[in-house]
Amino acid sequence: MNNLFNSNETKRWMLVDDNADILALVSVLAEALTDAPVECFNSPVAALAAYTENPEKYAVVITDYEMPGMDGVELCRRLRTISPEQKIILATGSGFFTLASAQHAGFSGLLNKPFPLAALRDTLANAGVSMGLLTHA
Q: How far is CA 10 from CA 22, 30, 38, 108, in A?
């Protein structure tokens, strides 16, 4: 495990994507960057319920845009209502968003799918997610 991004040991990363394969891939990438627990949700409604129950436990939320029941913009809006300072990254393959439009919608950063580990790392750093020390190369 690597702890490039510390999450104060108790903080978790929340990943939200309705595509199970993409969710698994992003989880592997996230786990390469942090020792923090990573929680995966294939439903934005389930993710919102978990977040509402205990918003303080999440250091960062990474969400897809196009999902059934609630899109990523609406999820971001609802999360911001609960915790205005939450770091929320939009990960999308739609090509609809620019960084400026994602930020205007309330996101802290934008990842265009597919993305490599370096893009995830850089986007998190640019969004202000707390960085710790590398444990290994």
A: 25, 16, 11, 21
Dump pLDDT digits (tens) for 41-59: 999 999 999 999 999 999 9
With H, G, I as helix, E, B as strand and everything else as coil, classify residue 26.
helix
What pLDDT was estimated at residue 47? 98
Contacts of 130 (CB under 8 A, 6+ apart): 5, 6, 7, 8, 59
Residue type, 12: R
Which residue ranges form the domains of the chain, and what is each CATH number?
12-127 (3.40.50.2300)
Whether 74 contacts 66, CB under 8 Å? no
